[in-house]
Fold Probable nitronate monooxygenase.
Amino acid sequence: MRLEEILNIKYPFIQGGMAHIATGEFAAAISNAGGLGLIGTGGLSASDLKKQIEICKSKTDKPFGVNILLINPEVEEIAEIVSDYKIPVVTTGAGNPGKYIEKWKESNIKVFPVVSSKALAVRMERLGVDGIIAEGQEAGGHIGELTSMVLIHQIADELSIPVIAAGGIASGKQILAAEVLGAVGVQMGTCLLATNECPVHEKYKDRIIAAKSSQVTVMGRINGLPNRVLKNKMVNEYIEKEKQGATMEELEILTLGSLRKAVHEGDMTNGTIMAGQVVEEVKEKTSVKALFEKLYSDYLLEKKKLCAK
Ligand SMILES: Cc1cc2nc3c(=O)[nH]c(=O)nc-3n(C[C@H](O)[C@H](O)[C@H](O)COP(=O)(O)O)c2cc1C
């Protein structure tokens, strides 16, 4: 079954639950354009999540979901809220959502953990999740070790539940490649950052459009929290300090509130500009609707060309 049928959406596209970016309004815009919008809970309190759900519901009658970051200090309350609101889809990140799954299934919620290893995907399938989002290390934000090319193929081969591909997807060809690897649909983050509806600062959008893939790097490789970002003054300094053996406390001085600085204040010097390797594909500001139409028509065209070979 394709993702469109599983989630009752027009296109097989999920918007990644991006912390400080994936608001209720943005999720609604994605769902109205035919994908699945997600409200991100990274940095969100339980009461703010309720507000964002209300906003999302007031702006769309289409299905939407919540991305639960399992390291959120209010995760227990957040896990209850999605059940109370009977949110159609929950995706999870940064850990093992095992203890919540039974309750969510009782509330008829479709559960899709984001994973970066086959071992976790197998454990999740045993716990009865509806599908897996396999995210390769090309992705923007916090990442694992394996590339999409290796990870998606491995997981899709091993599991019998649907697999959604994430990491390094921003063109029709890449959507088709994910399908060939065994995915029923894709989750995207980076290519949505420059859409008109995306609530990041205009300077963030301009930086994304101008960026080359060679300007993308990973900070936090040494302290164990790898984060894919665009290079800037703060990131260069962070990586240099990491190499010199700086403590977490010393490093945190640089990153405290830095995602907010980039997203809300447009600080491109000291802010954390999260973006994936695929950033070079993002060439203009456009509406989500126009982007989805183009991605899907390019995908169909590429599929036709491949079948005709
Ligand atoms: C700016 C940004 C912030 C992100 N924040 C989160 C997050 O809070 N939770 C999460 O599960 N994934 C997060 N991600 C990952 C996305 O959900 C998605 O899986 C990823 O962007 C897909 O790869 P791509 O960037 O190559 O499109 C983030 C990605 C970006 C670009």
User: Anything to note?
Assistant: Residues 212-274 form one domain. Residues 234 and 254 are 7 Å apart (CA to CA). The chain has a mean pLDDT of 96.
